[in-house]
Amino acid sequence: MSDKSVEARPLPAVPFLKIPAEGSPYLEALKCGACGALYLAERVACGKCAARGGFSPTRLANRGTLYSYSIVCRSFPGIEVPYVSAIVDLEGGGTVKGNLIGVAPEPAKLSFGMPVEVVFKDALGRKDREGHSYLSYFFQPRA
Amino acid sequence: MGNDVYVVGIDMIKFGRFPETSVSKLAAQAALGALDDAGVSIKDIQALWCGNLMQASNMVGQQLLQEIGQTGIGVVNCANACATGATAFRDAWMSIKAGIYDLVLAVGVEQMGKGLLGGAGGGKGISKEGLVGSLTMPAVFAEAGMEHSRKYGTTFAQFAKVSVKNHHHSTMNPKAMYQIETPLEAVMGAEMISYPNTKLMCSVNVDGSAAAVLCSEKKARELGLGRAVKVRASVLTSDPWQERDLVMPDVNSCTRLAAKQAYEMAGVGPDDISLVELHDCFATAELLHYENLGLCADGEAGRLIDEGETALGGRVPVNCSGGLLSKGHPLGATGIANLYEVATHLRGEADKRQVNGARFGLTHVIGLGSACAIHILEKPA
Questions:
Q1: What is the pLDDT of residue B170?
Q2: ipTM exceeding cut-off 0.85 for this assembly
Q3: How many domains does chain A have?
Q4: Which pTM does this prediction carry?
Q5: Domain locations in chain B?
Q6: Residues of A near B (CB-CB distance < 8 A)?
Q7: Min distance A135 CA to chain B CA atoms (Å)
């Protein structure tokens, strides 16, 4: 067992970010077996239809469009500003919130419906108390 | 005799910052004011509902009775985010509707401190704030406002006009935290907190309290109906499932649901409403609720603010008190403070900001997460 190499791998910043042993990271939702509603965390039953039939993991797309946003200019101490807090509708279903990077945080540079892609990068250098690194997801404009 | 419920006493303190006092002493000021307004004593009160958010586990209602009279009545302490005060009022209303009591007290109180509200992270792992978007309240409500911009082209200036209007209204309200005019250039030019919400478009964190004495029709006739305000509707909803609610806390559908139920219960429609106190926690939120409450058709909120229809003197004045933006937003007290404002107009006692001929008034609060409470009040007979 190469425990050291396992520990050296970054941890996912959020539970719905999956880091497979091989291949690229991806975002994963849980789909209600009865109505198809998507969730980013486990639920006892479906919030939409109340079915208790269970959920199946569903890989979310890496492409989507900007649904809404805010340009955050003041946050808690230690949080770097300004940045774009973006709500993105992913192709094939699922809506995720995250930082939109690779574009100036100015209203004139942002347009509703602009195409974006999901990219995976280190979590802005943030580490937990044990010193673990984390992998997070970001959105960036795509052509 | 019917089983209508009346507000026979209601009061709020001037909102401000009172770090030197205690939450129960703040509550006591409004409670005594409401009791005096009703002409009753704490010894007449049969039960107490006390709304408070930040110290919800501290038995604030009992602490309040220790300040003003420990009569041994039942006390319910309740917390429901920013709908806390309205929830206390509604549960008090239900107890009379159910025929359990004839005369009860509802109090909302909060001691806040300054600063930014929202998810500061913590717990295991790393802070998510500024990593996967923002959970600060100004950002969350900015995103809700930008959804409206996306649908209808609503502009930064239109959102900013809400603050101009509400700050103007508060210059006529001596109980508001602020009494200052803020021209459009000042609002738009203030420090940007979370676009499109500038600092002057965010509600003010203040300490405050408000209280109401509610009673049955039988009791109201005993006490005198002269200034008794009738509760025509009381509704509480939570947020029904929505496609994006995992990442966008939804303040719209719970408000629409509550508004529909409230108009049905009251037997009136939006056109009958003379004034509205709604949950303008951020300027972006107010425009959404014009449509959610049926004050205009979907997509017309921008026009309403442009044409002054929701300003004092307009077709349906909104937030004559100055709103949360200028009167201040002491979370647990806000719901009852809104009821105080509307009741004051319905009694014809709102002085310089009086909406003339007000017959029905609507109050609305949202607790993010979400809870929506709407009340419709009718002027004394």
A1: 98
A2: yes
A3: 1
A4: 0.96
A5: 5-114+204-378
A6: 11, 13-14, 37-40, 47-48, 67-76, 79-81, 83, 85-87, 89, 95-99, 107, 112, 123-124, 126-128, 134, 136-137
A7: 10
